[in-house]
Amino acid sequence: MTLDEPLIFERGASGRCAWDDGGTDDAVLSESLVRDDDLAGLPEVGELDVLRHFLRLSQWNYSAATTMYPLGSCTMKYNPIVNEAIARLAGFTGVHPLVPEAMAQGALQVVADLEEALRAISGLQAVSLQPAAGAQGELLGMLVIRAHHLANGDARTRVLIPASAHGTNPASSALCGYGVTEIQTDERGLLAPDAVAAVMDESVAALMVTNPNTLGLFERDLEVVAKIVHRHGGLVYMDGANMNALMGVARPGDMGVDVMQFNLHKTFSTPHGGGGPGAGPIAVRDLLAVHLPGPRLTRRDGLLAWDADESIGVGRVRSFHGSFGILLRALAYVLRLGGPGLEGVTRMAVLNANYVRARLTGAYALRYDGPSMHECVFSDRTLGDKGVTTLDVAKRLLDYGFYAPTIYFPLVVRGALMIEPTETESKETLDEFCDAMLAIAEEAAREPALLRDAPHHAFRRRLDETAAARRPRLRWSPANPL
Amino acid sequence: MNVPESLRYTSEHEWVRAEGADGVVGITDFAQASLGDVVFVELPTVGALLEQGQTFGVVESNKAVSDLYAPVSGEVVAVNEALGERPELVNEDPYGEGWLLRVRMTDAAQTTGLLDADSYGRHVESEQGT
Amino acid sequence: MRSYNPQTASDIEAMLATIGADSVDALFAHVPEGLRRRARLALPDGLTEPELRRRFQELAATNDASDPSAVFMGAGAYPHDVPVVVDHIMQRSEFATAYTPYQAEVSQGTLQSIFEFQTFVALLTGMEVANASMYDGASAVAEAVLMARRLRPKRRTVLVSRALHPHYRAVIVTYVQGLDDVRVVELPFAADGRIDGRVLERELTPDVMCVVVGYPNVFGVIEPVEAIAARTHDAGGITITATPEALAFGLLRPPGAMGVDIAVAEGQSFGLPLSFGGPGIGLFATRQEHVRAMPGRVVGETVDAAGARGFVLTLATREQHIRRERATSNICTNQGLCALAVTVYLSLLGRRGLGRLARRNVAQSHRVAAALAQRGRARRFGGDFFNEFVVEAPDVAGRWEALCRETGIVPGFPLGRWYPELEGTLLVCVTEVHAERHVSRLLDLFDAGGERDVAERRRA
To answer: Fewest CB atoms less than 10 Å from the CB: which of A149, A465, C111, C373?
Structure first.
């Protein structure tokens, strides 16, 4: 039985309060400064009301802990519970970011150790752990590139981005004042040196790549492409979203990459949290280190410390030192697995993806047949004549108890279905998933309405996104309850 | 797919209907079908000056955003205010109630350079083939 | 080898057979050998779970300052008591390991809790609409400036109060450095710690796109926001407030009631631990008329095919995955689980508890400020304040690090590190966590510049 539950604002009773730790009703500031609405609208509920409310809500969610999430480019691997225990140690949660460094050596050691690990994995020389998300790391990385060119007295105007790239790539470039030139992938699904050479010149600040790319294919010409870019004074930015396929296989620094961001909530197992918090540290080649934001970790009188000059590099992107709780979890993951363990992650991630690809090809149209790394992409070619779409397949998969793959991305594949199983799914789970996908392909032919009206068994039937967008209701209101 | 004979078309799927010195502008049936449910239309204000071929606004559906390209040059003398409350008019009646704006054309002859219904129909077929 | 990988040798054999490959290595044969050779990871072997826990327990133990009730600092990160129910809910894997709720039908838990979060933020800021959160208060205010630029495209000047938290000011400058058409002008503060009104008047030209003011500001001082907003509107600009201590909304007049256009805040006070400064959460709220220019994710109400109420991500066409280079922002996430913590915290405190807690903070901080003033430690700024204030104490500020080490008490933050003109002052924060015994030790420390306390410990 799945219990329904209203909004927390629709619960409770006047005068009820779950947390009253000896506060006061006495006036403490002059009336002109204080609010006069008595916080009307905030709920008045007890502790059990709150617990029950959120526990019921939790039961409506699919989650990576309860079922496989084959989301391409998201790396929904197992989030180790031990990392949660470590992140909650009082010696970490209670530390104020501004205490004297002598009193926070443990926290600073975490920062130092994670920086070192990311240097080793990237093959680059300097790291900033400050960015709060991959997109913010990408923005920081592009600002570093811009600063580099400005410092050379050479303001460039364009960035080259493959048509298969993630939407944040052009968005971040635009924030740096760059125009975007799109490069088409070739018939292999890859970035071809000729295509890059055709558009590369001294007006280009950088080429942004993802490797493996969003089609799950290893960009085997990246070293050659990087040389073309470098020859014209440009830099290479790599979106590190797909690092799960590279550990022990190829280091970005060895492939000519100058700047990259990591997504700790992908490769490094920190939980997705329903949308965050993540973290997006960047790694850069040593010639670019001067542009990294302050404060930077250093040593002073034998202790780890922040260097005194904060206003260095391109400047801060967030307050304090970064999403420390997330950095802590990522370091725990790295230390637990160690070098051999991380290499094993990539090996099994690629094995799992190729297994899924082998089982599904035929029933689903594999768009590019080059070797897949950690994810594979199918198009909607086998669905079109049955009147069902990729969206319908995704919704029907929910009925089988799985979360859907990434859909309609990358844009270069029509009706894309991007599947990344990750290394932590067992063969039995992969088989259940593939069996479900095959059953759905068969349903598409035999009884397409099953897909078009899916999901049938989730907490909610298919939701009307059009109505939500046409007449947005974005909050509950005491004057106008839903 | 509906392609009225009396209108002229751009390759970007806008239509224009000449009414004296004015041109009424909208997007075609093919365009609204490709976009899906329209949720919002961003239009210029009355008095704005359009140049043929330049973007003048945006039409949004749930999953896509599409630039709108001016089929003719001129001054905007009216916009379809109804679309604020009911953007779905663009889907339901793209050549009628779903009109976008009315332009006082600087050069009415510009419409003769646009595609006629047959040419536009062939253009759509060739696009769909890819 | 340490791992969470479940594959057995026979699993691997069976999968390779299905794939038609001879070995796992063969799956990487297309990667150039030179790259593969250099890619062996220069990292030590992995640890067992008990070894891992011991390693981190040792690290955690070297953080001496892990008793927040002895740390009288805010300055953008605030020590508060957090009900245990908050963390209990955050630990539910169904919330913690869920993805961004694109498949709405199986994400109603996340979506409804975000809708509740948006409602809380709108209610507390007095605004009509709020988004699903931004990374932190500092990046939220930078995004607010970018939003103001979209709303006032012909204007170029951003006026930022110098009394806005320096990290917030720094992030604004970082975010606009790539945009040719934006200049940032700093507004000095006057002797009372508030924006210098005469300078504001002079700088409010028709070129001003927005004015950014802290509320309360970094000194804990409460700015005259309503007057600032009125003047800014007369000049045609956008008013943005930034609130590092979100608890202030439990008591102070909300920005929305004072003519503010965009209100941002750091929500860490609402149920998130200090955790060395992160993760935090940016609260972002604005007026209904500006909603399409608002960055970030937003959840809306709708119905499903059976007519049941449900929630979905909406207005997505503002975002990067559709607009790409014309997006309102490059932001791709919200702070998910942190937003949930805030929602649970605010549900527990609710209408009765939040106001009382805010008033208690004010009562405590004012009591300590008065006690310090009695002991000759005057406040630097005479204005009204929330739970932080600035005291003149060059002797304590001058030996700050040593005093912290010697006494185990952190007597505020030495503002000279951020404001050279305020060398010798300390930003002191007092909340509900600061027990009486620590307060009296704090007062003792100020009494003798820390000397007496040290001497007593030596005798003991």
So the answer is: C373
A482 half-sphere exposure, CB direction, 13 A CA radius: 22
Q: Which residues of chain C does B44 touch, with a Cβ-Cβ cutoff of 8 Å? A: none
- In Å, how far is A289's CA from the nearest CA of chain C? 17
Q: How far is CA B10 from CA A179, A335, B5, in A?
A: 26, 60, 14
Domain that includes residue C41, residue range: 9-56
Whether pTM exceeds 0.90? yes
Question: How many independent structural domains does chain C possess?
Answer: 3
For C385, other C-beta atoms within 10 Å of its C-beta total: 22
pLDDT digits (tens, 9 = 90+) for B80-105: 999 988 999 999 999 999 999 999 99
At C457, the pLDDT band (50, 70, 90 cuts) reads low
- In-domain check, residue A76: no
Cβ separation C316–B62 shorter than 8 A: yes
Fold of B8-109: OB fold (Dihydrolipoamide Acetyltransferase, E2P) (2.40.50)
Q: Do both C333 and C355 map to the same domain?
A: no
Residues paired with A128 in a beta bridge: A282
Cβ pair A355:C15 closer than 8 A? yes
Q: Is B40 on the interface with C (CB under 8 A)?
A: yes
**CA C391 to CA B123: how far, in whole Å?**
75
3-state secondary structure of B86: coil
* Domain tally, chain A: 3
Tell me if C343 sits within 8 A of A9, measured CB to CB: no
Q: In A, which residues are within 8 Å of C311 by CB distance?
A: 463
Rounded Cα distance, C299 and C294, in Å: 13
A321 and A353 housed in the same domain: no
CA A224 from centroid of its chain's CA atoms: 28
Give the mutation candidate from C24, C171, C275, C319 for the A interface (greatest A CB count, under 10 A). C275
Q: Which two tokens stand for residue C67?
A: 């008793």
Residues on chain C touching A132 (C-beta within 8 angstroms): 135-136, 139, 278-279
C368 forms beta bridges with none
User: Reduced to 3 DSSP states, what percent helix, strand and coil does chain C have, rounded to the nearest 5?
Assistant: 50, 15, 35
pLDDT tens across A334-374, in order?
999 999 999 999 999 999 999 999 999 999 999 899 999 99
Asked if C280 contacts A327 with a C-beta cutoff of 8 angstroms, the reply is no
Which of chain A's residues have a Cβ under 8 Å away from the Cβ of C60? Answer: 89-92, 106
- Enter the ipTM: 0.96
A280 and A164 together in one domain:
yes
Q: Is the pLDDT of residue C458 over 60?
A: no
Evaluate whether C180 touches A177 at the Cβ level (below 8 Å). yes
CA angle A199, A205, A211 (to 5 degrees): 75
Cα–Cα distance measured from residue A110 to residue C52, given in angstroms and rounded to the nearest whole number = 13
B63: contact with C, CB 8 A cutoff: yes
Task: Identify residues of C whose CB sits under 8 angstroms from chain B CBs.
Answer: 292, 316-317, 322-323, 326
The whole-angstrom distance between residue A165's C-alpha and the CA centroid of its chain comes to 14
